[in-house]
Design a protein that fits this description.
alpha/beta, Rossmann fold, two-stranded antiparallel ribbon, 15 helices
């Protein structure tokens, strides 16, 4: 009985427990606020994850049977080079970014072509390497399949996840305690902000000047790395499989016709490259043999950066625009695109 009385007396009253929880919660909030402030002072900004949930959210927001809708697709050049906010200000139409980094746009175009409710305009970033590539399973097919099988709880998960991503920087991968420690151990420096920032509309801003602040790194080193990657890409693509090239042209032709029959429009854009990257492009896949054949066999609108001096830039990595360059580039590109499609602005 004595033990029971003792245990009873040791228990805190209810209001005291409430105070304990309030104090504990306050400590957590203060710690998170201080931790967040420290990294924001170091230049970190919130950045979303470029994942299937974000892509599916944009895909679901494309209105059915809306001929004013403009859908962007392609790869990293479409995401970095075209500033979506600037583009929307110029064309004043609903805009949806479906580009997927590191992939061919052909599966996404086919996906929209097979959607009878899509009657808008497609602006497709495509290059010669896409035209000759054999169809292989990659991220685009996975995300499309996930979209087709998505459920309501996926939308709820996205809303919660994106809210956190848009609000806090401490959840960035490079700011996880283990990664911070690894960075300090290997370089002797604290992490620095990543040069790419993904916004909610899937515009990916590239701040290439940050690369010069990285320990033992620079824009020049990044350019050399990109050039080596480009060489590696071509070593895997060549020699050209002419059957794959013709099959891709046939697929693109059929998909474009499906969209056009519903009143939609398609324009293919060859985004700029420069320096050694451009030299490789022109050497390995000459324009007359591939791009020009593409334009002859597919009945769509086309825009090649080499045909417009104002679209030719010296790119920091030879393949993508810095976010500062993206603003004037987007203004010019928007005007040229709308003119090529005979669309009133």
């Amino acid at each position: 009985m004595h033990s029971s009385i003792s245990n009873s007396n040791d228990r805190l009253p209810k209001h005291d427990w409430q105070q304990v929880w309030i104090v504990a919660l306050s400590i957590v909030v203060i710690f998170i606020s201080v931790w967040e402030s420290i990294w924001r002072l170091q230049g970190f900004e919130p950045s979303l994850n470029d994942d299937a949930l974000l892509w599916i959210n944009v895909r679901k927001s494309i209105p059915a049977n809306d001929q004013n809708a403009i859908v962007l697709m392609g790869s990293s050049r479409m995401q970095l080079d075209l500033d979506t906010q600037v583009f929307k200000q110029y064309v004043k139409r609903p805009l949806f970014q479906l580009a997927i980094d590191g992939t061919s746009p052909i599966p996404v175009l086919a996906h929209l072509a097979n959607d009878e409710t899509f009657k808008g305009t497609v602006v497709c970033d495509i290059n010669e390497a896409n035209l000759i590539s054999k169809p292989t399973p990659h991220t685009a097919e996975q995300w499309i399949k996930t979209y087709q099988n998505s459920k309501f709880n996926d939308e709820f998960e996205f809303l919660l996840s994106s809210l956190v991503q848009k609000t806090f920087v401490f959840r960035l991968p490079e700011l996880q305690p283990a990664n911070i420690w690894q960075k300090i151990s290997s370089t002797g420096h604290l992490p620095l902000p990543f040069y790419l920032t993904l916004h909610a509309d899937r515009f990916k801003a590239g701040d290439y000047l940050l690369l010069n602040k990285y320990p033992n790194y620079s824009i020049a080193a990044h350019y050399n790395m990109r050039l080596e990657r480009h060489k590696g890409m071509y070593s895997g693509l060549l020699p050209v499989d002419e059957t794959a090239f013709q099959n891709n042209l046939k697929t693109l032709k059929n998909d474009v016709e499906k969209i056009q029959k519903r009143g939609g429009k398609v324009v293919f854009v060859r985004f700029p490259t420069s320096g050694g990257v451009l030299e490789l492009d022109e050497q390995m896949l000459p324009r007359p043999q591939y791009w020009d054949v593409f334009t002859q066999q597919v009945s769509a609108a086309f825009l090649h950066f080499k045909d417009h001096a104002e679209l030719q830039y010296n790119l920091p990595d030879g393949s993508h625009l810095d976010y500062r360059q993206a603003v004037p580039f987007t203004k010019i590109l928007a005007r040229l695109l709308m003119n090529s499609l005979n669309v009133e602005q």
